[in-house]
Amino acid sequence: MTQPALLAALRAALTLAFLYFGLRKLTGHSADIAIYEAIGFGQFPRYVTGSVEVLGAALLWWRGWEGIAGLLLLATMITGLSALLIWVGPPYLHMLALMAGTASVAYAYRAETLDRVTQLRGS
Fold first, then answer.
1. I need a surface site. Which of 2, 26, 53, 79 has the fewest CB within 10 A?
2. Sequence-separated contacts (24+) of 18-21 with Cβ below 8 Å
3. How does DSSP classify residue 43?
4. pLDDT tens for each residue of 30-77
5. Which residues span the membrane (predicted)?
6. 85 and 96 in contact (C-beta within 8 Å)?
7. How many distinct structural domains can be found in the chain?
8. Which residues form the domain of 71?
């Protein structure tokens, strides 16, 4: 399998995962409600996180935004893992797998990300 094909497969897997977890948060799955209650900040962060995950999943397929999507989702996973470590507890394995996948996408599209940031800054 070539590198573009592997990246497409990785992006597809990440899209499915983040759509699943994001929509689960947005629709109020009982396990997600319990996790956010355990964290203690109320349910508003659940809606923010779910929205970011769904948006990030979509951006993985928007040409020129793949790396930014990877960074956005990586930041979400780092924040989520930190919250689990501090307030909730295991399981962590799925978070680590998603972090590795999003970091790989961000790294693979780093040149496009720099181009996009430069373009957005108007430089």
1. 2
2. 18/53, 18/54, 18/56, 18/57, 18/60, 18/73, 18/98, 19/53, 19/54, 19/57, 21/50, 21/53
3. S
4. 999 999 999 999 999 999 999 999 999 999 999 999 999 999 999 999
5. 6-23, 44-62, 68-89
6. no
7. 1
8. 3-121
